[in-house]
Amino acid sequence: MYFENAVRQHLQANPALQQRAIHNRPADIAAVRALAQAAVNVELFTIPLYMTAMYSLQGMHAIIGDNALYKGRLWPGMSTSAKVQTANQQCFNTIFSVFIQEMLHLQLASNIFNALTKNAPENQCSPCFTSPLLQDPGTLGWHCYGETKTTIPHIINLKDTTVYQSVTVSLGEVNDNTVALFLAIEEPADVLQTLIQDSKRGDYLVTKGPLSEQVPFDGWTADNTEKDLPMFGTIAAMYECLALYLNLEYSDGTTLIEALYKPDSIQNDLFNTESEGHCSPEFPHLNTVIDAGSAVEAKAQILTMMDAITDQGEGSTLKVQGPQVAVRPQGMVGDAVKPNYQPDFNALKNDYVSYNDDGQQVESADAHARFFGGVVDHYDRFQQVRGLLESGQLTTWSQWHNASDQPRSWQASMLELEGAAPIAGIPTAEEVAGALNRLNAPDSRDGNLELFSRVAAGAIAGITTVLNDYWSTPNTDFPFPSMAGSGDRISICWAVFGQAPDLSLGQFERHSGDSAPLYHACQGLDYGDSAEGNQCASKEVFHTCRGSNACKGEGGCGFVQSTKGGSGCNAMVAKTGDDELYTAPGDNFCGSYGGCAVPISASQRFPKSGTMALYQLFADKDSVKLEQTLSFDEGDSVYATAWKAYEKVMASEGKLAGNAPEASDLRLAFPPST
């Protein structure tokens, strides 16, 4: 492997890396932890950026599955396409393919972190996905983005370049700034280092001299963390520094990798795991977990993972600083991604299934999108996006809203196919269109935009907070529905307002302590006193997945969950054995038993049949399971069923539930999940 050979050559060129005094080992261990966390930060940083731009593209999508619950209806927001016919579809698929591989890179970086924690303190044995370098510790608002922000964390301040100095690190639509930012992030390392201004070259490791002469970091101590790292200049330089550390040898004959490698660490895999619903490895020639029996073998696996990250992203395998090269011309396609690092299309077709409006299986849109452009690196894919932008063929939601002198008004005809029959039990297309228009009305627009921004921030927090557990606590479920839910939240914000959500706002502040309310999650299903007047779920508990809710009374708005716990959100009613019971929407009698998507879409229907267990919830004592149960059928309204459950619970307490409130505009506008 070229990367490993290059590192070995630099080790030979700098004997100090092979005869390091043993007393430096605690500092070296801290440096590796910091570098591994920095890698997690960098990979995580890209995901909201790419997702926000992707969903800025104007378009509609159908909610389809094997049950045809929403036949004939359309919802605002684009989705993946198996047969690309428009520039918007091509652009969406292209960004989606990069977005998915960034999730792979985040997984690889996280597995690398966990594998290198043999001698780490107990509170530093897993990666952090809510780093204060990216997010506010209290609200989990993302402070790393903004119209005045210009820094790619740990890597470079774009003001210090000769090409990208006017680019801001802001969440936005597909436009000149956004595409330039994406190109800067994925710029090949040997090119990016030549773009650093002469007066700033001393500020970055990659332009100060050979990396092997700067590793180990001068003055580093065992108390330093990722916030103390130098700026690297390129993403490749960050990974190269980690590689050099992993090759350190000490004067007593021991190695740093031997002191770091933890064979029994938590290793998670979303891409190559073979299970029900995901039967084929997507990257069959790339080991996506570290499962080596020895430290030497583990190092080889880690180097290969880092090789794959930079090859898929920047278009070249890692190498220590080489000669200066000329800037690659814009639009020029580089070498293909190495075959071992490419996704397998046949595997993707096996793993991701699509259906038509009648519930019949068809060619997979997600498989095509995940593979779309997979033979070339992210930089070249974003060059393709730049070409589409310059062609003038793309339409964003902002452009759609501002296409005429009059504000854009939603019509029912935009939300259903011609001749579509009404769907019993869910709002009509006219009702949904009315809600979309009212949310963007001049007298309520600003407040609703803030609300949607906080909803989106809460949805993403539902991912990052669970990931903290996913890589630290065995048998934690990955928050798949949160991924889909966060996309829905960002997409609907673009569609309603023509603007990106402001993720810096974070979530609404939660009340805690003895005086905290018993939060409820479904509109009207209030088991305690509500300041919201039953108009919607408590804003403080907006989230999108079982697992991101931490206490009772917060769950159940979407799907039910097994009373046994432990199931994935997207499989809660996939099987209905005679003895299988589910918690009712709104119950969530203890943490992580709730359902998906708070607040619930008024159009949400059950995809399967089942039976609910019912509970009385109390703020200051354990929940009580009732003897009564409640059955539900495929196609039933989730909210109507939840209200029936609520009525039974209230009756058990000698209370009347009253009348179910009308659906709020928020719930009318939100699309159902599948």
Task: Please characterize this protein's 3D structure.
It contains 18 helices and 10 strands. It is mainly alpha-helical. The chain folds into 2 domains: 2-390, Ferritin, core subunit, four-helix bundle (Ferritin); 429-669, no CATH class. The strands form 4 sheets. A 4-stranded mixed β-sheet has the order 7-8-9-10, with helices on one face. A two-stranded antiparallel sheet has the order 1-2. Helix 15 (445-470) packs antiparallel against helix 16 (480-497). It is globular. The two termini are 44 Å apart. Residues 320-334 and 566-578 have low confidence and may be disordered.
Summarize this structure as a short list of keywords or feature phrases.
globular; Ferritin; 674 residues; 2 domains; mainly alpha; 4-stranded mixed beta sheet; two-stranded antiparallel sheet; 18 helices
Task: Give the SSE layout.
Blueprint: H1 2-13, H2 25-54, E1 60-61, E2 75-76, H3 87-115, E3 151-152, E4 156-157, H4 176-186, H5 189-192, H6 205-208, H7 235-246, H8 256-260, H9 295-313, H10 345-351, E5 354-355, E6 361-362, H11 365-371, H12 378-390, H13 397-401, H14 429-439, H15 445-470, H16 480-497, E7 561-562, E8 582-583, E9 610-616, E10 624-632, H17 638-652, H18 665-669
Parallel strand pairs: 8-9
Antiparallel strand pairs: 1-2, 3-4, 5-6, 7-8, 9-10
